[in-house]
């Protein structure tokens, strides 16, 4: 319960801050659609290796400050890992609040182990519901502090088998080098969440990363863009490191 209260206090602080700042510019009017697909050499999530080469499509709808995004990942073999996430977000000034349904089944360590249980919402549900808040400190100092806490999910347990409220806190900084968009950051897990992240420890650094990417518009193709990206990540707690590359198509 204490962990739940800490998580809610952190997110409530972000809500309180956002309600006392002016929105930075008027949101675009009307409904906007966007989407695309990435092809990645490996799927690494918050410093944790999830699967090998994968296809990762995305589709988003935005209206005003609200957005709904569908994102998925399936490994090339389509036999060991699949994921589909749905995220509802609201942005007010420098603060973005989100509620996400994270659904994944299978394991890269157990080929052919994908289940078909999307509509199972009981105690053994493969879904996780996660509440998040991200605060961009300022335009001049674009540090972003993000806090994400799992509220529901059968795998959301600690080392004692109790509800963990698995939480991931990340500080990141974007910058540009010779036209290449970069981002560096560090992410920590503040208490035991072995069921979600697979590391049986109470506090640890899970993700130290450096990402880079560049995209180009395609002439006479409307909003279509192509891009390439790479990412270095170190997971000190798991004694692991990954270097991932990929290509993207966006519209």
Task: Give a written overview of the molecule.
The protein is mostly beta strands and 251 residues long. The protein has a single domain, classed as Beta Barrel (Porin), CATH 2.40.160. 8% of the residues lie in helices and 55% in strands. The chain contains two helices and 14 strands. The strands form two sheets. It has a twelve-stranded antiparallel barrel with strand order 1-4-5-6-7-8-9-10-11-12-13-14. A hairpin with a 7-residue loop joins strand 12 and strand 13. The radius of gyration is 18 Å and the shape is globular. The termini are far apart.
Map the helices and strands.
Blueprint: H1 2-18, E1 31-40, E2 43-45, E3 48-51, E4 54-63, E5 66-75, E6 81-92, E7 95-106, E8 127-136, E9 144-152, E10 167-177, E11 180-189, H2 194-197, E12 204-217, E13 225-235, E14 240-250
Antiparallel strand pairs: 1-4, 1-14, 2-3, 4-5, 5-6, 6-7, 7-8, 8-9, 9-10, 10-11, 11-12, 12-13, 13-14
Number of strands: 14
SSE-based structural type: mainly beta
Reported CATH architecture: Beta Barrel
Q: Outline the biggest β-sheet.
A: 12 strands, antiparallel, barrel
Helical fraction: under 10%
> Radius of gyration over alpha carbons?
18 Å
What is the strand content?
A: over 45%
Keywords:
globular, Porin, 8% helix, 55% strand, 2 helices, 251 residues, mainly beta, two-stranded antiparallel sheet, 12-stranded antiparallel beta barrel
Summarize the structure.
With 251 residues, this protein is mainly beta. It has helices at residues 2-18, 194-197; strands at 31-40, 43-45, 48-51, 54-63, 66-75, 81-92, 95-106, 127-136, 144-152, 167-177, 180-189, 204-217, 225-235, 240-250.
């Amino acid at each position: 319960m204490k962990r739940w209260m800490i998580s809610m206090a952190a997110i409530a602080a972000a809500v309180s801050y956002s309600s006392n700042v002016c929105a930075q510019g008027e949101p675009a009017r009307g409904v906007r659609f966007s989407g695309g697909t990435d092809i990645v050499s490996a799927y690494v999530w918050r410093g944790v290796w999830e699967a090998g080469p994968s296809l990762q499509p995305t589709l988003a709808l935005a209206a005003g400050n609200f957005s709904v995004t569908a994102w998925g990942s399936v490994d090339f073999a389509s036999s060991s890992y699949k994921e589909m996430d749905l995220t509802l977000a609201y942005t007010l000034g420098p603060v973005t609040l989100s509620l996400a349904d994270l659904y994944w089944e299978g394991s890269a360590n157990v080929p052919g182990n994908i289940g078909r249980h999307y509509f199972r919402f009981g105690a053994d549900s493969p879904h996780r519901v996660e509440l998040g808040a991200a605060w961009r400190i300022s335009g001049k100092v674009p540090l972003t502090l993000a806090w994400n806490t799992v509220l529901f999910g059968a795998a959301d347990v600690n080392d004692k088998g109790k509800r963990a409220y698995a939480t991931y806190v990340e500080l990141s900084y974007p910058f540009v080098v010779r036209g290449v968009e970069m981002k560096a950051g560090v992410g920590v897990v503040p208490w035991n969440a072995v069921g979600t992240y697979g590391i049986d420890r109470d506090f640890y650094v899970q993700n130290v990363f450096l990402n880079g990417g560049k995209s180009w518009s395609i002439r006479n193709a409307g909003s279509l863009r192509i891009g390439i990206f790479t990412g270095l990540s170190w997971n000190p707690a798991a004694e692991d490191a990954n270097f991932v590359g990929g290509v993207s198509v966006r519209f």
